[in-house]
Amino acid sequence: MIELVDFWAIKLTSPVHRVAAGPKLVAAGLILAGVIVSRDLVFLAGTFLLLTGVILLAGLPWVRVLLAGFYPAVLLAPLLIAQGLGNPLGGLLMVGKAVDAALTMLAVVTTTPYPVLFAALRRVGPGLLVDTLFVAYRSFFILIRVTQDVLLALRLRGGLGARHWGRRLTNISQGIGLVIIRGIDLSEDFSRVLRLRGYRGRLGAPGTEWRFRPPELGALLLGLLAAAFGAEYFVGDVLAAYNGYWFVLGGLLLAGAAAFRVLGKGGPVRWR
Question: First-to-last CA distance in the chain?
Fold first, then answer.
């Protein structure tokens, strides 16, 4: 999956991809804030439509991205079942928040190359911390792949099918040791690659991460509107009567993005 995310972020081109990483992150943070504090299903439904429109406008395989966005809702299912059906509104709010939050982050990481994301974060955060997160981001998925390869090798050789539990635990512990050794080896290789490519205590991309043009200002405006409508409960329900407009805005953006793709202006529609 990580290869697909990198491919979508780097190879695809769209108006969403061209928005600078810094303002995109701020807009996503504002939308997340609105989703987290919201207690209105209409707002959450409007945000879902808006994010679906963004995914379509970006030219992403929208079916696959939406399915990934619903993973948190699946994970919430046991909790909702345990709570029972006494409060269906609360359950729907939890599902809506989880899905909207997941789609917000997916819309960011699938339209922005990860080096550019971390370069934008480096402008506003501690450099050492951001560089550590950058390396950890890649290493995490590399180690997952190594672990999968080790488990596959153990299964093929019958190491996980041993009837004797002692033998099985021995095989698993040896596999864990192999993963650790392989991880150390990969980290040393990665360190050498960084030094060969001129790393001197700084990772970054060219300095366009915080430019502000009409697309960036439009993204920030959407983020501010999302934060305002989401937090309407905390400001005396002043905007509660206008949440329907947010739903309409989300629907219009979705319809416009769909038309943009269907008419071929932004390339073919990717379904999967």
Answer: 13
